[in-house]
Amino acid sequence: xSKKEITKRYVLCVVSLFISALGVAVxxxxxxxVSPISSVSNVLCEKFPSLSLGTWLFIxxxxxxxxxxxxxxxxxxxxxxLQIPMSLLFGAxxxxxxxxxxxxxxxxxxxxxxxxxxxTIILGLGIALAVxxxxxxxxxxxxxxxxxDVSGKEFGNLKIAFDILCVVTAAVLxxxxxxxxxxxxxEGTIIAAAATGLMVKLFTKLLKTPTEKILKA
Length: 217
Prior knowledge:
The protein has helices at 3-29, 36-47, 53-72, 83-101, 109-133, 139-151, 155-177, 187-216. It is mainly α. Helix 2 packs parallel to helix 7, helix 3 (53-72) runs parallel beside helix 6 (139-151) and helix 6 crosses helix 7. It is globular and about 55 Å long. It is 78% helix and 0% strand.
């Protein structure tokens, strides 16, 4: 792989981060919950709003990176530390996306659902581009891969289990923080969980071949 192609892949990775972050922000604007991996950060943001959603996402991602180090130990590759600046960028992009999306109407339930669907589509596009870029894995998937490498269990099954664990953790935190009420996790989380993977598959199928040609040009 040439240096030019590597550079293009990392640029695409950064672009995919911005698109994914915008998707999270638009979904957040719907106030019906966010994607499973962002749900813990969303609940913490609801409880401690002095820190932005982007900041909580960065903290959560750092926890997942630390988890990889604990799991892999000497097998943890130093290049994976690039997840830290990538997570910082993702957090910053999420806050930018939140500022942009605050102008979107969300005054009726239909508008909220529309925002969740739109945000999920945007998030799916961002993740698909990250998959195509094949540069640095996001911390959530990298953590699941670390568990898979250590346990020998199938990545796809562990990813589903991890998403469920994130939602359960977010729900428990919400019940603790808000007197047994759910906040920051609602039907939008279920929609995002069910549809994001489908969007990723669709966009990957549509964009992989033409994007790869551009990357290799």
